[in-house]
Design brief:
about 600 residues; alpha/beta; 3 domains; four-stranded parallel β-sheet; 17 helices; elongated
Length: about 600
């Protein structure tokens, strides 16, 4: 700087102007800083301090979810608290944030459900007198960092876990401030609709669920009034009380290829909210059987699940549930709807069947063979029609086709039974199935056994609407001949056929099949009390097919029902042999009302 001033003094500039220039230059250099001997710029007193770097935005935490390892999982759900824990264990691997609510507060659980779906977090339940150890163990398993405590939820977690309170019935603004998540409009949930509403919750902006009467009533807008300007002291913003908030949270990607089922009266809100928070759709399976109704079958088929979670022990063993879901996943429906032969679910109509009996092309063996295929189907429907006005159940037309016919001679194979080729029966079988009718293949095996003959018709039994009938009257001992003796069968042979047919059905994921056992005398099915009725794939009918006077038929009916195993019951009307034949109204006056009525 001195060198610069010296140069100015040497120049030919008048003294007054020279002083002004020097002063200006000194001021400029003072403001800008000077260059030191080492070439560095020396900061001056007016140099500003650099601003600190902004804090990085925290990375949102997110839960880790996944499908259960098993194909089917049944959660016992003995209590709502148990169900909440079981649902969390089923689909959440890790959850940095967990929502808790009191077990006895519906309003709090609705708030918790909305928050859980928005955050992608499980919901657990607290109770004042309950052991907190299972809940705390679940928080530890989930590696939880923060808990959103709704309402009067009582919880003392480890010191490393932050507890953020929020009132039951909180609005969207409060929930957003507390959780950082976005919510839709508040929605009142009518009493009794809580389960259905929580089942339908979905992100990314779930509605804020509240109990009836919780929404504020809009007030009339008051007229504007002039107000005095506040003083400077009054206009100062008061210091806000800090509000505890959750860590920034991002919902996880939804669990895939998994569904949950309800329908046995066990519908805990917390467990349902947890499943929805993990993205698991919740479907209705009335009575605990996904095959029971057409909507249930269609929903399962549309979801095509690889894993199923059922809420309630009444769904039965997990392996049974897996087989039921596999059948429902095909989407195939039986005549009358659903995949059960005789659905017995509250609120779901039952089914009854009215059938023509005989074999195609032979009028001598029954009315089924008196006309061609189209006329047979029309006659079957007309025969069933009068019954529809007599019952609230769905009446399904049916055909019972004699596939193997008892013969007077031994035939080439020596078994006194003529086996009709599959391709001869197929036109009627497939036409009946296409018309929504049930089909039953009747076996009259002579001196061979029922299983051997049943397996001959595997191609037809693989059709979803085809069942099987065993006719012991025509099951001969090695030294017997038809019409000289009445045949009979041992219960082990019957149970063997039932086991084979059940396995056959399960392996092909087919709907339930009807298995008919014809009987008009006690000795025809030996040791009948040991009949195995446990196969979920079968609906077993004992068909009382005696003929003659109505008092005689009634006696046979009542006698065969004595000490009978738990089965469905069938009745046969003979056009020529009954004296007289009952009309539809009289037939349905038989008690119990027959589930299957056939005409021969």
């Amino acid at each position: 700087m001195l060198a610069v001033v010296r140069d100015l003094e040497v120049g030919a500039v008048p003294r007054g102007r020279r002083r002004a220039l020097v002063a200006a230059l000194v001021l400029a250099l003072t403001l800008a800083g000077c260059t030191a001997d080492d070439g560095q710029v020396e900061p001056t007193a007016t140099t500003s301090t650099p601003l600190p770097s902004p804090s990085p935005t925290p990375t949102p935490v997110s839960a880790q979810v996944g499908a259960p390892a098993e194909v089917a999982t049944v959660l016992p759900a003995a209590t709502a608290q148990d169900a909440a824990l079981e649902a969390s264990r089923a689909v959440f691997v890790r959850a940095p944030v967990v929502v808790v609510a009191p077990v006895d507060d519906v309003a709090a659980q609705l708030t918790a459900a909305s928050a859980a779906v928005a955050l992608g977090a499980p919901v657990l339940l607290t109770a004042p007198a309950a052991d907190a150890a299972p809940l705390l163990a679940e928080l530890a398993r989930l590696d939880t960092e923060a808990v959103l405590a709704v309402g009067a939820a009582t919880l003392t977690p480890p010191g490393s876990v932050t507890v953020v309170p929020v009132p039951a019935g909180a609005g969207a603004d409060v929930l957003r401030t507390t959780t950082g998540a976005r919510f839709g409009a508040p929605t009142e949930v009518p009493t009794g609709q809580e389960t259905a509403t929580v089942r339908a919750l979905a992100g990314p902006r779930p509605p804020v669920l509240v109990v009836p009467g919780s929404l504020p009533t809009p007030s009339p807008t008051p007229a504007p009034t002039r107000t005095a300007r506040p003083s400077a002291a009054q206009s100062r913003t008061p210091t806000a009380t800090p509000v505890a908030v959750l860590p920034s949270t991002r919902p996880p990607a939804a669990v895939t290829a998994t569904v949950a089922l309800t329908g046995v009266g066990v519908d805990p809100l917390a467990a349902l909210a947890t499943l929805r928070a993990a993205g698991v759709p919740v479907l209705d399976a009335p009575g605990g059987d996904p095959r029971a109704t057409t909507p249930g079958v269609q929903a399962i088929a549309a979801a095509a699940p690889e894993h199923t979670i059922a809420l309630g022990a009444a769904f039965g063993p997990a392996d049974q549930l897996a087989r039921r879901v596999a059948a429902a996943s095909t989407g195939v429906l039986l005549g009358g709807g659903g995949q059960l032969v005789f659905p017995q679910v509250p609120g779901v109509p039952g089914k009854k069947y009215v059938a023509l009996y005989g074999t195609p092309g032979s009028a001598a063996l029954g009315v089924l063979g008196e006309q061609d295929v189209p006329a047979t189907l029309a006659r079957a429907d007309a025969t069933a029609a009068p019954y529809r006005t007599l019952t609230a159940d769905v009446v399904v037309p049916a055909v019972e086709i004699i596939a193997t016919i008892a013969s007077a001679g031994p035939g080439d194979d020596g078994n006194y039974s003529t086996e009709r080729p599959v391709e001869e029966l197929r036109p009627l079988v497939e036409a009946a199935g296409a018309a929504g009718m049930a089909v039953v293949l009747d076996l009259q095996p002579g001196r061979t056994d029922f299983l051997t003959q049943a397996q001959r018709y595997a191609d037809l039994l693989a059709l979803p609407y085809v069942g099987l009938a065993l006719d012991p009257e025509w099951r001969l001992a090695p030294d017997q001949v038809h019409l000289r003796q009445i045949g009979s069968v041992g219960i082990d042979e019957v149970n063997g056929v039932a086991a084979w047919l059940a396995d056959f059905t399960a392996q092909r994921a087919l709907p339930q099949k009807m298995l008919v056992l014809h009987q008009f005398a006690g000795r025809m099915i030996q040791d009948r009390p040991r009949l195995d009725t446990s196969h979920d794939e079968l609906a077993i009918v004992i068909h009382v097919d005696g003929q003659g006077s109505q008092p005689g038929k009634a006696g046979t009916w009542n006698g065969l029902r004595t000490d009978a195993p738990p089965v469905h019951w069938g009745w046969k009307n003979f056009y020529d042999q009954d004296v007289p034949m009952l009309d539809p109204t009289q037939t349905y006056q038989v008690q119990p009302v027959p589930d299957l009525v056939t005409y021969q």
